[in-house]
Amino acid sequence: MEFDRETLREAMSISTSANHEEPSLFEPIGNTAERLAQGDQQGQHTNQSDEEGEEDVALPEGVDSIESLCMNCGKNGSTRMLLTSIPFFREVIVVSFRCPHCHHSNNSIQSAGQIQTRGSIYTVKNVHRPIDLNRQVIKSEHGQIKIKELELEIPKGTGKMTTIEGLIRDIIDDLSLNQPARKHLDPLVYAKIEELLERLTAILEFRSPPVTVELEDITGNSFIEAIDGLNDPHWSKREFNRTTEQNAELGLVPQAEETAQGLTDDYEGEDPEEVYSFPSTCGSCGHTLNTRMKKIEIPHFKEIILMSTNCGSCGYKDNEVKSAAAISPLGTKLILKVTDKEDLARDILKSETAELTIPEIDLHLNPGTLGGRFTTLEGLLKQVFEELDQKVFARGDSAAGQPASQNPPESGDSEEAQNYSKTTMEIFLDKFKKIIEADTPFTVILDDPISNSFIQNIYAPDDDPAIEKIEYERSFDQNEELGLNDIKTENY
């Protein structure tokens, strides 16, 4: 069952503008569970009931029931809905259907928030421990699950809230459904599916080598839990711009929209001071727009290209930096020792291939995070903080919690595990604020395998005692990820 997003957003805005003592439309799921448990104990129920002669079943406050058609038997059943918010994620609608006639039941989860400006890809590597299988998973109806080692891809379908273990068990149940019939009708397909079922079962029983689970969602409304906050070496999130076809699939643009292509002005040579413009597509709404581009030379470094996008249809804005230089034969690691607030004013160029690390707070950003940025060190840190505070960590249940133990608990569903995550995030953000204000010395490490990142040397052309530069040869895996191993410019 689908719900009108504009109606939900209007209800959310009304709830926000109301008296602060009134409950939010999307109550955090932890508070909801606690309130429902107290209601069960105290016998506080509403007077709603199931239809078709079923005995009265009182529903707790906040749970709505709607009569709906059963697609299994054609009679009317009951759909129950709960509006809630998931910690470290966003608002969702939990939907449960049950038919009293044929006893068919199912449940799903739908995003109640807006479609994000970019799609997202969550990746969890080395899944082989109980705590990995207990990672919480929010899969929207547009989410696609991939297990790379098994070459297994689960297409888009019903949204659900589960764990990685729950996803694998659902796959096993779906594949096992018609196996007895396949054994006689198509023995070859039966044998292949049996082999796949054995490998999936081995993952659950920890008899399998580590696997990689990937969740891709063009709406950006799916999620896989990170253990121990950002200090999770096996978890990563990457965002991407949707294609025109994907925007059309989501109904953001018409299917047959005509787009204007090509440049109208004749090329008359390159002017270093000229701002160029070329047609492109908005990554948020899919409409055509003009992206402006200007080449700039950074003193004592290289040339870069500044690109600016401003969509007149939806108001989406984006700025990014691209390198205009060739790929260097060596990679570069830049290490800056920040000792006072003057260091925060240094210009910094972080290319899209660079890793950013601050060891003092266990911050590590993978290549591609935030894209390319040319700003000051203070500006870059504030951008990182805003991205983490607004997109990765939602408010709600994460606002409270007791100090956590040093080692994360094995079970992701336990109260101890939830408290551990809450306090980890709070402590991390508090440390990050002190870093931004330079209240304590810290180290910034930019590791760029193609040497297109830069930290301003305030003593140029002399050496800067606060900056250490280390050049190194790229590994085979780094060259493979950059697509350099297959490039041949000689003897081909």
TrEMBL record:
<dbReference type="InterPro" id="IPR042451">
    <property type="entry name" value="ZPR1_A/B_dom"/>
</dbReference>
<protein>
    <recommendedName>
        <fullName>Zinc finger ZPR1-type domain-containing protein</fullName>
    </recommendedName>
</protein>
<dbReference type="InterPro" id="IPR040141">
    <property type="entry name" value="ZPR1"/>
</dbReference>
<feature type="region of interest" description="Disordered">
    <location>
        <begin position="1"/>
        <end position="59"/>
    </location>
</feature>
<feature type="domain" description="Zinc finger ZPR1-type">
    <location>
        <begin position="280"/>
        <end position="457"/>
    </location>
</feature>
<feature type="compositionally biased region" description="Acidic residues">
    <location>
        <begin position="49"/>
        <end position="58"/>
    </location>
</feature>
<feature type="region of interest" description="Disordered">
    <location>
        <begin position="396"/>
        <end position="418"/>
    </location>
</feature>
<keyword id="KW-0863">Zinc-finger</keyword>
<keyword id="KW-0677">Repeat</keyword>
<dbReference type="GO" id="GO:0008270">
    <property type="term" value="F:zinc ion binding"/>
</dbReference>
<dbReference type="InterPro" id="IPR042452">
    <property type="entry name" value="ZPR1_Znf1/2"/>
</dbReference>
<dbReference type="Pfam" id="PF03367">
    <property type="entry name" value="Zn_ribbon_ZPR1"/>
</dbReference>
<dbReference type="InterPro" id="IPR004457">
    <property type="entry name" value="Znf_ZPR1"/>
</dbReference>
<dbReference type="Pfam" id="PF22794">
    <property type="entry name" value="jr-ZPR1"/>
</dbReference>
<comment type="similarity">
    <text>Belongs to the ZPR1 family.</text>
</comment>
<keyword id="KW-0862">Zinc</keyword>
<keyword id="KW-0539">Nucleus</keyword>
<dbReference type="InterPro" id="IPR056180">
    <property type="entry name" value="ZPR1_jr_dom"/>
</dbReference>
<feature type="domain" description="Zinc finger ZPR1-type">
    <location>
        <begin position="68"/>
        <end position="226"/>
    </location>
</feature>
<dbReference type="GO" id="GO:0005634">
    <property type="term" value="C:nucleus"/>
</dbReference>
<comment type="function">
    <text>Acts as a protein folding chaperone for elongation factor 1-alpha.</text>
</comment>
<keyword id="KW-0479">Metal-binding</keyword>
